Amino acid sequence: MSLADTATLRTRVEETGLLWGLVGLVALLSLLPIGRLVVEGLAPGGQLSATALGKVLASPTTWTATWNSLVTAVSGTVLAVLVGGSVALLATLTDIRARNAFTFCFVLPLMIAPQVTALAWLQLFGPSSTLLKLIGLAPPLGSRNPLYSREGIVLLLGLQYAPLIFLTLRAGLRALPKELIEAGLAAGAHPLTVLRTVVLPLMTPPLVAGIALCFVSCLGNFGIPAFLGIPGNFIVLPTLIYQRLAGLGPGVLSEVAILSLLIGIIAMAGILLQDVMMRRRDFRITTTSSAARPFELGRWRRPVEILLWSFAILVLALPFLGLLTTSLIPAFGVPLNAATATLGNYAYVLIEHAASRRAFVNSFLMSAGAALLIVLICVPLGYFIVWKRSRALRLLNLAAELPYAMPGVVLAIAAILLFLKPLPVLNVSLYNTVWIIVFAYLARFLVLGLRPVVSGYLQIDRTLEEAAQVAGAGLPRRLVTIIFPLVAPAAVAGALLIFLTAFNELTVSALLWSSGAETLGVVVFSFEQGGDSTYASALATITVLVTVGLMLSTTLFAQRLPQGVLPWRD
Amino acid sequence: MARLTIDRAQKRFGSYLALDHVSIDVEDGEFLAVLGPSGCGKTTLLRQIAGFDKLDGGAIRIGERLVSSAETHIPPEHRKLGIVFQSYALWPHMTVAENVAYGLTVAGVRDPERARRVAAALDLVGLNGFAERRPGLLSGGQRQRVALARCLVTEPSLVLLDEPLANLDVHLRAAMEDEFARFHERTGTTMVYITHDQAEAMALADRIAVMDRGRLLQLATPSLLYREPANATVAGFIGEGMVLPATVLSAPQAGRCRVKVLGLEAVVRCRPDQPVTDGAKLCLRARDIGLAATGQDGLAAAVERLSYQGGHFRLEARPACAGDTLLHLDANEPAPAAPGDTVRIAIHDGWVIPDAGALREVA
């Protein structure tokens, strides 16, 4: 009798211990950094004061950068909606062929680092474009690269994030019951009328969600305005924060904290606006049924296919070709031909250059480490959220979204504020080490791992766990022997998403890196800033190849994945 | 082996009472079926016994050990019972042998003892030779057997079966029914069998607990349940009983009394303490009524439908004196009447349903 009671007690201690450990961990990763940032905004340096606030708000640069941020984010979103929206409609609702291959190609820019996209497009245009020189179309020397402009930033933001609109809209279109379309057609409406009066109105929720996501991503993007804006002195909020901090050091921390709160507030406003719009009307779809049968394009099929694929080639293959050609020439400006082509840049970035070599190791280890740790957190976390329906954790589930919804610079500044001073009690300083970047990765990408794991749990029959419980297995044993193997495919998908995102990331590490703790994004950025476009291109080419290779490798276990966890898989 | 005592168990989901003061005593080694339509609370009851949910009131004991009450809750992993799930819940990432061995591994049993017991359990369900297969490659019946072997290998004192045959096709069900019966005979384990299929429950169980809307309606042997339903719901649910308003005319004599139903007098079975009343309810089964012989008293009724059941006809007729009642009876070949014909129906037997106040005690 007493033996049974001790066992029961132990079980309870194990379960509550694990639960509260997770609650603490998620709070540490999501609530603490944002909270610290807010405190700094209100009480810079620990004292309630409005001096820093006044100084930042009085500076005209602040408002120029804010205006520029708003203009580029809004225009970039509009472009992304036009491109991503029409492509989603064409690729989902019509009977075009090779849909999977097209989806993969169209979503690819999303998985490639923005700074690499920027670099690739820069190599495509401009007087020194190796590719244009190759075909004799390069503009005269001394002319300005047209991408060093507001319009250039808007164009690349739009193309980078068009896949976001594409993905949310496609998911919505797939959930649209075919009866709704067929009822419209049966009533005698032309397919285009049905599209305008039935499909598009019902697609408002996914579209609005996609727009909000896209707006926040454009607003927080650092890579594109850093590569295209800084040379032309077109400054947005993330680049302003970077310049202040890089130029003046931690002394201006309070000021940049206020700037990053400003971006945070704009991002939140975008998300709240989405919420308000969604409440104004009833968009609920009442029936469920199989997905709609695609519209037959008939003789228009081939032209549409040609259009879609040429677009994919234009935005994907051409810039990459620009990147590749630049990476093969010995010095910037030298034309590419059989005599000049060289792999020397690759040898340099892979072997000779110490920082770049270190960056490979750092980025690889930090991304893999973050992916692994997040999966280890998310599997028990998902268990409590989905199966135990723990209320505390469901609130924290929302909190976990926060660091990812916020622009990356916001989290980076918050991490600096947290770790600038040595940790209390332990007296260890994380600042200027790789660990501050690892912390930021864990906080920022937690939700990327959590979402696939949660959808994995939703698809598993819980009696599988209950059967193990009845067999006498306690929670730790069930997690290891039953639950982990069952959610493993979803967890691996999440880990891969985290790895790819962190591996290509620049926004966070641009503010947190230090000598010895460089990331690939940082090294590409400093090569390009130092005028070494050939090295930057070689390094960027390698990251693109790694990314595409890993994405393709998912076909190996795609059959065992819950639908929709990997954006590039149909 | 252990007895299972459920004492006034209560479970709420919001304002809905999913279990309303349910009390059941299961004897050591007994095979109890819990029968009811979906949503009646039988699965809730099973989850309470297993410990997946916490009880809001009352108590559950396994053997002498209190496992569930409003204050106490022993988690499922410490209840030492076995469950066969409706979905079988076989772990897809383990082989058949690993599935069966799991409970032994958890309990600290090691090879060769473990291997020996796994082999014995697989042998018992006729699956030796399947040890290294993955569950995904097995047929429905084979999966069911693996689930059974997995549940019994640890020799639990109490086994819960949650609609174990619901996912099998008809001819396989009969075979598995036999299997369960033999198992129970051989192991003598106390078994609680959840089902919505009354034929299954009747064939297997020592006693049946009929549930509806969270309440226990009657707990009795299959034959008693069929012959003497305690209330109108049980009467209607079990064996398609027809429940008709009746007047009890005489006090019971040797278990029978005189009643008037649909204007016709008949002698039917009743409880020894059945009072004379004009508000009684009579339960009639198809075999309790038949076409009246010539000259016999009968009830005029219009035949509405005749359906062939193989060997006999099911005849549905509407009495002339009660337009909202439909009677059904069995009639031998050849067809005695055609739809639209008027027939005369005689009542040979029936059961006066005890009134609601007395029925709780029947269990």
From TrEMBL, chain A:
This is ABC transporter permease. It is a multi-pass membrane protein. The keyword Magnesium does not apply. InterPro entries: MetI-like (IPR000515), MetI-like_sf (IPR035906). Coiled coil: none annotated. The keyword rRNA processing does not apply. It is found in: Cell inner membrane; Cell membrane. Keywords: Cell inner membrane, Cell membrane, Membrane, Transmembrane, Transmembrane helix, Transport. Its main location: membrane. The chain crosses the membrane at residues 18-39, 70-94, 101-124, 248-273, 306-329, 364-386, 398-420, 432-458, 479-500, 506-527, 539-558. CDD domains: TM_PBP2. Belongs to the binding-protein-dependent transport system permease family. It comes from Bosea minatitlanensis. It holds the Pfam family BPD_transp_1. Residues 66-274, 360-556 form the ABC transmembrane type-1 domain.
TrEMBL record, chain B:
SMART domains: AAA. Transmembrane segments: none annotated. Signal peptide: none annotated. InterPro entries: AAA+_ATPase, ABC_SmlMolc_Importer, ABC_transporter-like_ATP-bd, ABC_transporter-like_CS, Mo/tungstate-bd_C_term_dom, P-loop_NTPase, Transp-assoc_OB_typ2. GO terms for molecular function: ATP binding. Keywords: ATP-binding, Nucleotide-binding, Transport. It comes from the Bacteria. PROSITE patterns: ABC_TRANSPORTER_1 (PS00211), ABC_TRANSPORTER_2 (PS50893). Residues 4-238 form the ABC transporter domain. Pfam families: ABC_tran (PF00005), TOBE_2 (PF08402). Gene3D superfamilies: P-loop containing nucleotide triphosphate hydrolases. PANTHER family: SPERMIDINE/PUTRESCINE IMPORT ATP-BINDING PROTEIN POTA (PTHR42781), SPERMIDINE_PUTRESCINE IMPORT ATP-BINDING PROTEIN POTA (PTHR42781:SF4). Belongs to the ABC transporter superfamily. This is ABC transporter ATP-binding protein. It comes from Bosea minatitlanensis.
